[in-house]
Amino acid sequence: MSDDRLRIAPRGFTDGQWREFQDRGLIRIENALSPEEIDHYLAAVDRVAAAEPRYRPGRSLRLDNAVELDPAIAELIDHDRHVGYVYDVFGEMLKLLRSDVRIRARGTERNAWHPDSPRALPYQVFSPELPLRMSVGYWLTDLPAPRMGNFVYVPGSHRMQHLEQYHTHDPAPGEDILCVKAGTLTVYNGNLWHRVEPNETDVERKNFFLSYCPSWVTAGDHYFSNDDWLATLDREQRIIMRSYRHPHGLTNPDAEDFPLFLDRESGADSDPDPQPHVPLRIRKRTTAAENRLAAARRA
Ligand SMILES: O=C(O)CCC(=O)C(=O)O
Asked: Which of 31, 86, 242, 293 fits a 20 to 30 Å CA distance from 132?
């Protein structure tokens, strides 16, 4: 493949955003979507809801593996708007773990306090410094106040293995009830403890969550992607779906899937001073997160 088909990694965390992500476990990016983009994605939510036989207008809905349902959702797999944040952490092994569409109407069922991970032995035990799962939220409806089906989290709780309120809807000390304007993006560490507020209004909360992980962490809403659908994707989208059929694929992805992105600063497909005799598919690439942790240790 000639290099002009390769993409430079889109922009990721600023230093300030990284500090906030490490401290609080969640960052928010306001005005990430223009009014036209909000309408574009709301139309996609409405299309996939209308096509779902279980859906009744005015009721709540959750659709898994949403990227396969509509091209406007598929375009988010590797969208420049957010993919750099998850690339900063999962680097060349980036995978989409799950994608879902949420409509939370009045009286929505809601999740009690939990982290996004295996519960009996959470990811956090194995990887206390960096998450093994991160979720990007696309908020498409104004949620200016509590009791609108909001996402609620305890800032800093991604470092905690226990929360007294686990599996309940009880308020937790220090919790932040996310009140967002439509067009806001959030990025959170999957180890963060969170719950969902009731929705006592007639505003339907509509949003997407796209969750990412290293390729060898199991996906959450599919085993393999549909081949015909994969053929509609661009190169980076197809790679990030990681739909390998051979047993070693997820730990040793195909040679043609490297590099996923070129380095943001140097434009190179390798770290400085690569060992040229080592094939690219097994050459270690350092992530931005690794560099930031190393710098923090030196400071
Ligand atoms: O809908 C939400 O705000 C959060 C959903 C949730 O808790 C989850 O997907 O794990």
From this structure: 31
**Residue closest by Cα to atom 3 of ligand 1:** 151
CA of 12 to the centre of ligand 1 (A): 23
254 C-alpha to ligand 1 centroid (Å): 33
- Write out the residue range of the structural domain in which residue 102 sits: 3-298
Cα 225 to middle of ligand 1, angstroms: 23
pLDDT tens-digit map of 96-141: 999 999 999 999 999 999 999 899 999 999 999 999 999 999 999 9
CATH code: domain of residue 179:
2.60.120.620
* 47 Rama sector, left if φ>0, alpha if ψ -120 to 50, beta otherwise: alpha
**Residue 288 CA neighbour count, 13 Å, CB half:** 21
Total domains, the chain: 1
